[in-house]
Amino acid sequence: MPWAACLAGAVDMMREARRAAVIALGGNALAPANEKSTIYDQFRHARESLGPIVDLALDGWNVCIVHGNGPQVGDELVRNEAAREEASPLPLGVLVAATAGWIGYMVQQSIENALRRAGSPRDVATVITQVQVDQHDPALANPTKFIGQSLSPERARELEAEGHAVKPDGRGHLRRVVGSPVPLAIHELRTIRRLVDDGTVVVACGGGGAPIYDHPTLGWEGVDAVVDKDLAAAVLARDLGAELLLILTDVDAVYADWGTPAQRPLRQLTAGEAEQMDRAGAFGEGSMAPKIRAAIDFVRRTGGRAIITQLDMGRAAVRGDAGTTITSEHA
C-alpha cells in the first residue's frame, strides 16, 4: 500500500478512536458575577480559564464546547435600551446570536492559541447555532432564566414598570428573567458532527443557541427567548453520540443540604437519585436544577456519564478525582 494511503488510514483510525465530549461552559467563567467585566477582562478570563478544556483536547478527546451568555446578553439588552433613541434596538433572539458570535470568537481564539503553544495542529471553529423549540412552550410565558447583572431596587422597579420580569437569584440579587423554552433539536447538527468527527474543536450552541420554530408558511422563525445552555448541551451530546457531558460551573460539585452546616459534596449519583432530589427541591431552580436535569436526560438517553464540577477541576473530574458524576441506573 502506498505510504500516503497508509498515513490516511492511520489518521482515520485515530479519528475513530477519539472519544467525544460535550463541555458546557458557564457565561460567568468569562464574566464573573462579582465584577462588571470589560471585554478585555473577558478575554483575560477566557485565556486563563480554558486550560482544562485544552487538556481534554490534548488528551485525544473530540471536543465540542457550549458556552453560556447570561451576563453578556443582559449587558447587550442594557446597551440596546440606552441607545434606543439613536439606533433601533435588536430583539432578544438576535442578541443571543450576536453574543454567540463574539463569545465564540474569544473562546475559539483562546483555545487555538493554547493548542498552538502545545504544538497541536487541531483546528478550532465556531458554529452559530439555531436550536429548535416549541413556539407554544409554556416556559415562554413564565420567565425563569436569569440574564444580566444584579439590579438596584430602583432599576428593578423601572424594568417592572416597563413590563419586564425581575426576580431574586440564588444569591438574593435582583436580576432580569426571560422565557427559556426546552430545546428539542440542534438545527446545525450535521455540520457540527462533520467538524467534530474530523477532529476540529467546535464551539457550538453559544448562549444555548438562538431559538427558532418551524412556521407553517414562513419557514424557520426566531423566538425572543434564551435557551438554557446546559439543556442545549445535553441535546447536542445525545444527538452527537458523545460519551461524556461535562458541565463546568462555579462550584466544585453538587451538594446535599447546600447552604446549611450539614452541606456535603455528592461524588456519585444515579439518574434516579438525582431525579428524586430534584423533585424534592434540593437544587436551585435558576442555578443547579437545570444542570441536574440536563445530566439526567443525557445519561438516560445514552448510557453515557455526566459530570458537574468547577472549571479548573475539569480534567481531574474526568479521571474520577473531583466533581459529581451522574450515571444511569445500569452503569
Features of the shown structure:
eight-stranded mixed sheet; Carbamate kinase; single chain; disordered N terminus; four-stranded mixed sheet; globular; alpha/beta; 40% helix; 331 residues
Mind telling me the C-alpha Rg? 20 Å
> Beta fraction of the residues?
15-25%
Structural class based on helices, strands and sheet pairing: alpha/beta
Strand order of the largest sheet: 3-9-2-1-12-16-17-15
Count of all domains: 1
Nearest-integer average pLDDT: 89
CATH-defined superfamily = Acetylglutamate kinase-like
Q: In angstroms, what separates the terminal alpha carbons?
A: 42 Å
CATH-scheme architecture: 3-Layer(aba) Sandwich
Q: Share of helix among residues?
A: 25-40%
- The string of secondary-structure elements, in order, is HEHHEHHEEEHEEEHEEEHEEEEHHEHE
Name the shape in a single word: globular
Most strands sheet: 8 strands, mixed
Briefly note the CATH topology name: Carbamate kinase
**DSSP E strands, number:** 17
Number of helices: 11
Poorly predicted spans: 3-16
Question: How are the elements arranged and paired?
Answer:
Blueprint: H1 3-17, E1 20-25, H2 39-49, H3 51-58, E2 62-67, H4 70-82, H5 92-117, E3 124-127, E4 130-132, E5 145-147, H6 153-161, E6 165-168, E7 174-178, E8 185-186, H7 189-197, E9 201-204, E10 210-215, E11 219-222, H8 229-240, E12 244-249, E13 254-256, E14 264-266, E15 268-270, H9 271-279, H10 288-302, E16 305-310, H11 314-318, E17 324-327
Parallel strand pairs: 1-2, 1-12, 2-9, 3-9, 4-10, 12-16, 15-17
Antiparallel strand pairs: 4-8, 5-7, 6-7, 10-11, 13-14, 16-17
